[in-house]
């Protein structure tokens, strides 16, 4: 088994990215319900934004994991803001997520990125995965939202 991490080629990998994303997030524990139109818009937003930065985990040249986000510039150094991180459910439970995070960290260091940032829900298994992989909570930070339309 050969594992590699490299930047996603939007032209070549869009459908594979969509497949991994949908496999990961339409099942437990998220159970998201994506229409074809909305998933295409959402992934376009992530993959084609000005500072988009997205990586794939490839197992024997098959995309099995994605880290979709953006490069952010901050006074303390460049950051990779991860909006979506997942490994295909059929590949979970074998250490590939941790391996992906390690390879991803090495890849972004080469771009002079000093921080990885992300949000997750404390009640989902991903929370403990990130803690296990050396992420720390920002104790005074809270995520807020406002519903403006039903």
> Strand fraction band?
25-35%
CATH first level: Alpha Beta
Alpha-carbon distance between the two ends: 47 Å
Task: Report the biggest beta sheet as strand number plus sense, adding barrel if it closes.
Answer: 5 strands, mixed
Brief account:
The chain is an alpha+beta fold and 150 residues long.
Please characterize this protein's 3D structure.
With 150 residues, the protein is of the alpha+beta class. It has one domain: Gcn5-related N-acetyltransferase (GNAT) (Aminopeptidase, 3-Layer(aba) Sandwich). The chain contains four helices and five strands, in the order βααβββαβα. It has a five-stranded mixed beta sheet, with helices on both faces. α1 crosses α2. The longest helix is centred in the first third of the chain and has 16 residues.
How does the SSE layout of this entry go?
Layout: E1 3-7, H1 10-25, H2 36-47, E2 52-59, E3 62-72, E4 78-87, H3 96-109, E5 113-118, H4 125-132
Parallel strand pairs: 4-5
Antiparallel strand pairs: 1-2, 2-3, 3-4
Could you list some keywords that capture this structure?
single chain; 150 residues; alpha+beta; Aminopeptidase; 4 helices
């Amino acid at each position: 088994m050969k594992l590699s991490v490299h930047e996603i080629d939007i032209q070549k990998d869009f459908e594979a990215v969509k497949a991994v994303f949908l496999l990961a997030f339409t099942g437990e524990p998220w159970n998201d319900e994506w229409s074809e139109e909305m998933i295409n818009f959402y992934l376009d937003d992530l993959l084609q934004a000005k500072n988009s930065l997205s990586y794939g985990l490839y197992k024997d040249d098959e995309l099995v994991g994605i880290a979709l986000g953006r490069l952010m510039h901050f006074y303390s150094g460049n950051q990779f803001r991860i909006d979506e991180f997942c490994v295909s459910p059929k590949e979970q439970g074998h250490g590939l997520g941790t391996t992906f995070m390690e390879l991803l960290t090495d890849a972004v260091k080469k771009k002079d990125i000093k921080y990885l940032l992300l949000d997750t829900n404390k009640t989902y298994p991903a929370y403990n995965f990130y803690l296990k992989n050396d992420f720390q909570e920002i104790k005074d930070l809270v995520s807020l939202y406002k519903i403006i339309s039903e």
